[in-house]
Amino acid sequence: MAEARPCIITVAITGSLPQKSDNPAVPISIAEQIESTQEAFEAGATLVHAHVRDDAGRPTSDPDRFARLMEGIRKHCPGMIIQLSTGGRSGTGRERGGMIPLRPDMCSLTTGSCNFPTRVYENDPELIDWLAAEMLRYGVKPEIEVFDLAMLFNAVAMAEAGKIVSPLHVQFVMGVKNALPADRETFEFLVRTLARLAPDATWTGAGIGRNQIVLNRWSLELGGHCRTGLEDNVRLDRETLAPSNAALVRRVVELCAEYGRRPATVAEARAILRLPPAAPA
């Protein structure tokens, strides 16, 4: 396994839905999130994708809460890559990027708008440019969230214009109703298109709901990286609630062996994503 290609395992610990969900394992408070992230880190995750909630459990972009979360993760998960969400459920307009000055390793950046199951996920060009400029200003690497094909082309155009620093890191999100379906031919087309447009880019596959393990398998097979966690899939199958974020990470670790891959170390993950070595806690 020492010569196997490393896979960065991202754990999306909480999500931004306004309810806790039917699974008590979903971490909500900062303390719960830190504990869950540490368990996932020890299980093999080297990148954490994070949202925060207010005292009532509602999604928020409160920089103070993000700062407390980052402090705890850096203390208990040395070197783990911290990626904060700028997603639309946690705020409106520029407040969505209020945590960027905290200088996390990465932030999510969706480069277009699309339909979600019950609403429009709106990312207007001015907001996208502002978020990208803030990430550039504070040295934060964006993870490009691709919910449809246009977002991939938009990201490449932004990189060519100097609005995003190359090499890109792209996440293909599949299985959201009204957006990209979890379709194998479509997935392979996206991977090929990224390789054609941005040959030095890295990528991750993220599947929603029951498609989580499907995208895990496809990503491992095609040489990409994997995202898992309770944000995307609170169930292991139709009847069984996922017991923890760590359990979902361990499932990906087991899948790695099936595909001749292995979980990336912290140092490897940072090198693959062209991130600097971790700062001291």
Describe the protein's architecture and organization.
By secondary structure, the protein is of the alpha/beta class. It has one domain: TIM Barrel. A hairpin with a 5-residue loop joins strand 4 and strand 5. It is globular. The two termini are 30 Å apart.
Q: Which residues form runs of ≥5 with pLDDT under 50?
A: none
CATH class (first level) name:
Alpha Beta
| CATH fold-level label | TIM Barrel
User: What can be said about the biggest beta sheet?
Assistant: 8 strands, parallel, barrel
Quaternary organization: single chain
Percent of residues in helices? 25-40%
The fraction of residues in strands falls at: 15-25%
Evaluate the radius of gyration. Answer: 17 Å
Q: What is the fourth-level CATH superfamily?
A: Aldolase class I
Count of DSSP strands: 14
Overall tally of structural domains? 1
Give the spatial strand order of the biggest sheet: 2-3-6-7-10-11-12-13
Mean pLDDT over the full residue set: 94
